[in-house]
Amino acid sequence: MEKMSRVTTALGGSALTGRTMHCHLDAPANAISVCRDAAQVVVAGRSIFKIYAIEDEQFVEKLNLRVGRKPSLNLSCADVVWHQMDENLLATAATNGVVVTWNLGRPSRNKQDQLFTEHKRTVNKVCFHPTEAHVLLSGSQDGFMKCFDLRRKDSVSTFSGQSESVRDVQFSIRDYFTFASTFENGNVQLWDIRRPDRCERMFTAHNGPVFCCDWHPEDRGWLATGGRDKMVKVWDMTTHRAKEVHCVQTIASVARVKWRPECRHHLATCSMMVDHNIYVWDVRRPFVPAAMFEEHRDVTTGIAWRHPHDPSFLLSGSKDSTLCQHLFRDASQPVERANPEGLCYGLFGDLAFAAKESLVSTESGRKPYAGDRRHPIFFKRKLDPAEPFVGLASSALSVFEMEPGSGSMSWFVDTAERYALAGRPLAELCDHNAKVARELGRNQVAQTWTMLRVIYSSPGLASAASLNHSVGKGSSCGLPLMNSFNLKDMAPGLGSETRLDRSKGDTRSDTVLLDSSTTLITNEDNEETEGSDVPADYLLGDVEGEEDELYLLDPEHAHPEEPEYVLPQEAFPLRHEIVDTPPGPEHLQDKADSPHVSGSEADAASLAPVDSSFSLISVSHALYDTRLPPDFFSALVCDMLRFYAEQGDVQMAVSVLIVLGERVRKDIDEQTQEHWYTSYIDLLQRFCLWNVSNQVVKLSTSRAISCLNQASTTLHVNCSHCKRPMSSRGWVCDRCHRCASMCAVCHHVVKGLFVWCQGCSHGGHLQHIMKWLEGSSHCPAGCGHLCEYS
Fold first, then answer.
1. Which end of the chain lies in a sparser environment, N or C, as judged by fewer CB atoms within 10 Å?
2. DSSP 8-state secondary structure symbol assigned to residue 232
3. CATH class of 21-336
4. Compositionally biased, Polar residues: which spans (predicted)?
């Protein structure tokens, strides 16, 4: 949408006027450039190469430089530049590796002047010398930079960056012989055009390819760079080593960066993908843009300030086939939409709250509480009139501190260091972690680990001692105990009423399994007279397909001569104990008249003799496996993980995720898992638990997390003798043909772990250096430096 604001700027007798406007192009644009008088702009792309006049109300097409019936790759432009001294001179970088110059003063339709075909691959950037009319510099995908003298037909010098690709080249505005170049490997190099053999300075500027750079028009040593790591960095090149003075964090890869005229700390950026907007940043305020232009609907490919002394007009081209002029006054101000409140927890539990001064001014008179360690707890930051943004915001900050000792996080550190997350069976992991939690006084967490062991580990892994239950005073039974109660608590005379009638003369033998060790008692023809005081046990056993039956067994009348019969062990599956309320006497009276079951029909009976009391025990075994599958508890486990995460204990949530792995991963969405992992990893890194953090990343079940420790694994090294970058082909320098990584102790090539002193740069095998420094603190290379290994 076009905005109707209009600005007139006086520039040395001439005036720039215009408004926010745009025009539609025939094809997407790759680059734009403005002529010296700011009256025309050239637009170049794969299928477009035109010059437009910038009028007050619109863009007017003046010249189409794509002439001829046959399309030529020389006209497929990746970059274009308009000479700032000669208004008739243009240069383009073609995608086929050709550098073309154009002379607009030629009378013919074809304005092409010279062709330079020395590059082997696409030329990414061309740049004219700011004061020398005949010097042109190019940077190509083949890793070479070439300097052309337009009075000759070939290049005068070639610069090798020892890298895969050159992404940008820019002549310094203040230093006549200096230019900067950026590379795919993240390096920035400074060259002197008089010395093509080696660069003057090289440093790593970004974590990834550096796509663009721009020299500051006023400060001689400031160089701005932008890269794929979504950062814009400002470097001070006047120092001995390049010093980063500002860093701006953007939301996408930075494709172009241009300093704003007459504004020392302002620069404009556009992104290579995802983000279509153009941002103007104040480098002193790196998190919120000073202005934002939102006219484009596709990726912005080129930006240029209309005049080197006018900060009001910005021109841009885009892949949406539009050419726009942006008026700075019409730009949106993101700071106006920013949240004016902020809330943050400190590492040890302190809480900071920032808000507008008007919202908290009523509380400015309150006093700090007794446990406060810093006075006062509430304070207002005093504004410095000389500080930037003094008129934009005024805020007050409240700090709420934890009482001394109450915010200790030692349990978190101990738990992270002692937890076992892998390398053992699931049951052992759960038991170990439960023990750790119990020792740290976290009983709920310990109980949770125990329950997870019960749910997910196989029952065969449990020890028999933990699953046998006591029956009576001195015996245990391998069968699950269902009901148990004492006959002392029953009504008197119950024994005579429930006496079994054994007068039919049939003989039977009852085999009783006392424990897991095949200890048997055989009882045959046990009879009891009414009123007998001989102790006996009443056993109530479940029989397959029939009712329960009450047996009166007298252990003193057992006949040892009878052969022992042992039931198969698998007939008695282990089950958990269920203790029911003892039934009343009426239940026993009903059972007293039940028919007898012969010994061959009964499956098992359990005998527990008691010295002075009767015990009535109901024993039952399962005819099938009643263990619930782990999937039955999946919803419950997921609710448990969310509970711990909502309570702030992401350590427990992440640890369970890692231990259970695929058992629970499918039931929790990927975004939630990633959020838990990032929160836990952030806490571990705050407490400097780097090894634990790396282990969590390595064992994570989230794909987005498991790749965190796989980034930035490339180390670029230089030869210790000639200082040239080392190739990836071995330990021998390509230039001086000497081994770069020699051990200072054994004088052999180091092919494994290499350790070096940051003071003198000498080093060698890790074990050799450690052994050397045990007896001497001087460098083994003999340089005299006092080395230290920690």
1. C
2. E
3. mainly beta
4. 514-523
